[in-house]
Design a protein that fits this description.
This protein has helices at residues 5-28, 68-77, 87-97, 111-114, 118-198, 224-235, and strands at residues 48-51, 82-85, 209-213, 216-219, 248-250, 253-256, 264-266, 282-284, 287-289, 295-297, 301-304. By secondary structure, the protein is of the alpha+beta class. It folds into 3 domains: 1-85; 123-215; 224-304, no CATH class. The strands form 4 sheets. It has a 4-stranded antiparallel beta sheet with strand order 6-11-8-9, with no helix packed on it. A 3-stranded antiparallel beta sheet has the order 3-4-5, with no helix packed on it. The longest helix has 81 residues, at 118-198. The N and C termini lie far apart (149 Å). Residues 143-177 form a coiled coil. Residues 96-112 have a biased composition (Basic and acidic residues). Residues 96-117 are annotated as: Disordered.
Length: 307
């Protein structure tokens, strides 16, 4: 028997209504007559339809005016992407889609409603996803904080490394300078000893001294530079920018002050013999100095010539 188009539509429409009514009973235990089933239930109905995003178009038509294709699609998707739920369950789903907190999402669904329900599964996955998102957000914030601290730490490390490199270079330079000056001082002492042995005192030939304080006199002889030039040349002090020197006569106990911001060295150029004829010497910071030796000092140097 060949059915007309309207008869065919009526047949599949009735088949669809019966399938929907049976599904409502299976899912919710509600008895709804096939003729009363609607795709867009009213507020007073005790059932609602939950559908996936991709199949929302199935609920946009009226069953009475649907096509054969629509009826077939509804029957195929029942229990897969379309299912009956309580209005409360549908409200929970819609609120969750609006990103409302779970505590405000309305009454919870019963175990019977959730059993085998893709809506319940979607709800479960969304809750799990929300938890994971919160954890990811916290982890991201913590990671950003850690990265910020790491950048600061790396910057401090680079700064300290630069300072260390600069200090190392400075230390290497100073070590080289000490070696050079030490070598020059050794050679200068030899020159000084030769002057002491063969030419006598470098400054004893002049009486041009001016008193600075008790037991301390500064040499003001204009020829003093000629006398100490060989020593300065051997020390290479004359190559140092901003170097300076003074010649003093010491006649007793004094505290000799260093020059600030400079390395200060004390050289005894000549020492008068003692009263018993013994070789002259001077006490400097607990050490005995004689011509040809020296001492470096950075704080007041206590000297005693024994005179």
């Amino acid at each position: 028997m060949v059915l007309t188009s309207n008869e065919k539509r009526a047949f599949f429409r009735q088949q669809c209504r019966e399938a929907l009514a049976a599904h409502i009973y299976d899912r919710l235990g509600l008895v709804v007559a096939p003729a009363d089933v609607r795709l867009q239930p009213s507020v007073g109905d005790k059932y609602a339809w939950s559908v996936t995003e991709s199949k929302k178009s199935l609920l946009q038509s009226n069953l009475g005016r649907g096509s054969v294709g629509l009826y077939k699609s509804i029957c195929e998707e029942l229990g897969r992407s379309l299912e009956a739920v309580t209005p409360q369950t549908l409200q929970v789903t819609q609120l969750e889609r609006d990103h409302l907190p779970r505590e405000e999402a309305g009454p919870a669904r019963s175990d019977q409603e959730e059993s085998g329900s893709f809506t319940a599964k979607i709800h479960e996955l969304k809750c799990a996803n929300h938890v994971l998102k919160d954890e990811l957000d916290r982890t991201t914030i913590h990671l950003q904080g850690s990265l910020g601290e790491n950048r600061i730490l790396q910057a401090n490390i680079r700064r300290l490394q630069d300072e260390l490199d600069s200090s190392s270079s400075r230390a290497t330079y100073l070590e080289d300078e000490l070696v050079r000056i030490g070598s020059g001082i050794t050679e200068a002492m030899q020159v000084l000893q030769e002057y002491q042995a063969h030419k006598g005192s470098m400054v004893s030939e002049t009486n041009e001294f001016q008193a600075e304080q008790e037991h301390l006199f500064r040499c003001s002889d204009e020829g003093r530079h000629v006398r100490v030039d060989p020593l300065l040349e051997e020390l290479r002090f004359n190559k140092i920018k901003g170097y300076g020197y003074s010649i003093w006569r010491i006649t007793g106990k004094i505290a000799f002050k260093p020059t600030r911001h400079y390395q200060s060295l004390f050289f005894p150029l000549s020492i008068k013999p003692g009263s018993d004829g013994a070789a002259g010497e001077v006490q400097a910071a607990g050490e005995v100095l004689t011509p040809g030796t020296y001492i470096s000092f950075s704080s007041p140097l206590k000297l005693d010539t024994g005179q």
